[in-house]
Specification:
Number of strands: 5
Helix content: 40-55%
Number of helices: 9
Order of helices and strands: EHEHEEEHHHHHHH
Amino acid sequence: MAKRQPKNQLPLDFSVRGDRIVLHLGQVESQQKADQLFEGLVRGEWRVEPAGEGADISSAQEIINVLGHRLPYPEIIKIAHLHQVDDNFVGFSAIYHQRGWVFVSAHVDVNERHYLACLLTASLGLYTAYTDPAMLAARTEQLVFDALLPASDVSSFFREGISKIPPFLAADIADFFKVPFPIVLRRALALQIISEEQYQMFVTVKPKRSAKPRELYVAKEGSVEDLESQLFSEEDTDF
């Protein structure tokens, strides 16, 4: 999309027009890619609207409703799912033409895309109160954790003493919360619902959706333990 900036050319001052990046996600390489993309957008080297080959565009209003806080968001926030980005790109939020924008890759898993969009949307409601990027990122994550991963819901998926989570169950948990499975585990660890040892075991599980709905049969004399045995005792080689 964006052209590489010549070495002898000064970086564009986004603040002159009010156009600016609010929050970067990812490591240095992703942040550099975000800067290049946004510079190219501001310079007119590519267009985010109308939607087309470059990006799919949607409103962030549903996410704002899910986050559930009255924050000083820009009047309009749009989400751009970018097609022409590499695997190292994670995402960023920005103010562009006095609107809030969230930029994420269109190629990642739907749950990861939703989680990243929630983080970046929240940042657009918080950035005026948190000028330090690290503090903004931390507060944004906490708001999203509270909204998407309430303690009571997270605890319902992790029985005491559990030592194994099959890939199909990891996928079900991720789909329930609409966030990547490792994010659910991070939240469970932070809430002390699981131990560090459990976290290290579960984080290696690769979620895998079942090809067809699973049928569970519990006899009349069956108990909760019988049901748990069906869920957790099956051998699976996808760990």
